[in-house]
Amino acid sequence: MKLSQLRILVAVAEHENFTEAALHLEISQSAVSHAIAALEDHLGVVLFLRGRHGAHLTPIGAEIVKHAREIVHRADQISRAAELARGLQGGQVRIASFRSVATHLLPSVIADFHQRFPAIAVSLTEHDDYPQVEQALREGRADIGFTLIPVHDSDIAAWEILRDEFVALLPPSFHPKGESLSWQDLVTQPLIMPPKSDLMMQQLHNHMEVQGYLLQIAYEVGTDATIVSLVAQGLGATILPRLAAEPIPAAVQIYSLPVPLWRAIGVAVLAEALHPPAVYAFLDILKKRKAA
Question: Does 149 lie in the same domain as 281?
């Protein structure tokens, strides 16, 4: 008894016709007839009643085809598992991200991935902002991207993996007027901020407008690390996502905003793309970390 014979048995049972089964399997009708005859001879029973109206299972044929379907299904599962294993024995995962995620989240994830799949290479490209990440996905230059949620593009599928709080960083000499930080405390400080054109900070500016305050920026600085260093030197205060601000010097004071604000960071892929097994393996590690 051969697996190919069982596949033919299942096909004939489903189509109730030798010719249609042959067309479905893309083999000749004579090959179908020969396989069924050989299987009946091997089992010593008649599987089908043949006639002008097609081929219909006998009672014992109906019983046997149930087992044949299960065997074919199990065989397909074995083949898929082997294909997946072959796909994880090499290849590459291309990741696009903005700096704070690339610096603080991805190194440990990539290390975990490399430990489990050492033969798969990982390439990481850093971008200045999330629209560039999404563009890299659209253009096929990246398999996986890290962006802000929600994504307003039906071509991209994304889901949240973490929330990153916007925090106020105050110089060592700062003392709040009350028990907690107020908006008035913040707006009276010289603020050291990323440029107004920085798309990553647009959420904060919108939040401040809703609260009835405008950020009075004393210094515009292009890099987060430099901003934090200036705050540590007592030159002013800033508001940054915590991941972007880290590592934060011990002398710098950290406060939640009077009305807290978070940015949702997500992992994204092209919605309709056919991804290699390595990409799904990397996404699986991310999902397990989020669930932990």
Answer: yes
Q: What is the total count of domains within the chain?
A: 3
Asked which of 70, 87, 104 is the last residue of a domain, the reply is: 87
pTM higher than 0.85, yes or no?
no
Domain that holds residue 23: 3-87
How far, CA to CA in Å, does 51 sit from each of 57, 73, 137, 219, 268? 12, 29, 57, 89, 56
On whether both 132 and 43 belong to a single domain, the answer is: no
Element (H, E) at 264: strand 262-270
**Do residues 246 and 280 share a domain?**
no
Peptide bond connecting 176 to the previous residue in cis, omega within 30 degrees of 0:
no
The 8-class DSSP code of residue 250 comes to: T
Can you give the pLDDT at residue 173?
Answer: 93
Q: Are residues 233 and 103 in the same domain?
A: no
Regarding whether 97 and 60 lie in a shared domain, the answer is no
Structure confidence at residue 197 (pLDDT): 83
The residue written with tokens 């009305």 in the block is 259
Tell me the pLDDT of the chain averaged across its residues.
91
Query: Of the ranges 70-79, 112-121, 234-243, which is most confident?
Result: 234-243
Tell me the pLDDT tens digit for each residue of 215-264.
Answer: 889 999 989 999 999 999 999 999 999 999 999 999 999 999 999 999 99
The Cα–Cα gap between 257 and 170 comes to 12
Question: CA 218, 222, 223: angle at the middle one, nearest 5?
Answer: 115
